[in-house]
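Hi V.,

You were right to ask for the full record rather than a summary. Here it is.
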Amino acid sequence: MLVPRRVCTVVFSFVAIIVPACGPGVAQAVAQAVEAPPYFLAWRHAVEAGDAAALTALYSTHPPLEVLVSTGAFDDVAREVNFWAQWHRAGMTRLGVEMIRERRAGPGLQQFFFQAALPVQTRSGPHTFYLFAAQTWQHQAGGWRIISASRTDLARLRQPDSLAANLFPPNADARQEIAAALARARRRHTRVLLVFGANWCYDCHVLDLALRHSDLTPLLDANYEVVDVDVGEFNRNLDLAQQYGVPLAKGVPALAVLASDGRLLYSQKDGEFEAARALGPDDLIRFLTRWAPAHE
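Predicted structure:
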C-alpha cells in the first residue's frame, strides 16, 4: 500500500458522521433537499443580525446545552452565542445554509445537519469560511430550543457533503484522455492539468468543488485542460504517476502541469494538495496563475 488508509471522523451530537479523508471504502453523507422550519430560520436570522439576545433565547438551559467542537465539549450558552454573533461584526449580512439532512430524533426532538457559509470582510478583502454543523432542537414550553449542537473547524474552501460525484470514472482511459487534452491545449494555447486521485478521496472532492464550481472556474477554464486520473486503491495508472514524477506515497489529490507539447512543467512532490481542505482560494489562484501559459 502506497498511502495508509485513514478515516477522518467528525462527531456530531448523538450521531457520528464519517467524513472520508484519504482511504477508500468508507461511508458517505448524502445531501437532501430540506425546507427549514420557522424556528431554525429565526436562529439563522439572529445570526445574520448578530443579535446575541435573540440567539440566547433559542438555546436551552433546562436541559443544559451541550456543544461539541474539535477541542472538546462545553455547556456555555454565551460561548456558543458569541461564536455565531461574531460573524455579523466581521461584516456578514447573509448566512449561507446548505441543509444536508433533517430528521426526527424522538418525540418533540428535531435534528438538522447543514453546511454554513460565512462571508466576511478581511484585511485582504472579502472571504467566505465554511463549516459543517448539527443542531438538536427540543419542543419546550416556551417553544423550540437547541439542546445540543456541534460544528467542525472552519475551512476556507467549500466542503463536499457527499462523495457521490463520479470524478474519476474507473473505466476511463487516462492516456487517451491526456492525448485529447494535449490536442485541445495546442488549439487553445493552454496547459494540461493532471489531477491524480480517486472517488473515495474527500480532499479530491474539495479540490474539484474549488476548481470547477466556484469563482476560480473561469481562471481554470481559460488556461487549462483538466484530466482526472484515477488511482483506484493505489493500483491504477501508477505508470502515469511515475512518468509525470508524481509520488503517490505523498497522498492524493496530486497535480502535474504539462505544456501543450507534452513537456512536464510541474509535478507535485511533497503532498502540497493532499490536504486540500486546509487550502484557501488564494493558494489555488497563485498556483493556477503561476503555471498559466503566457503566449504559448
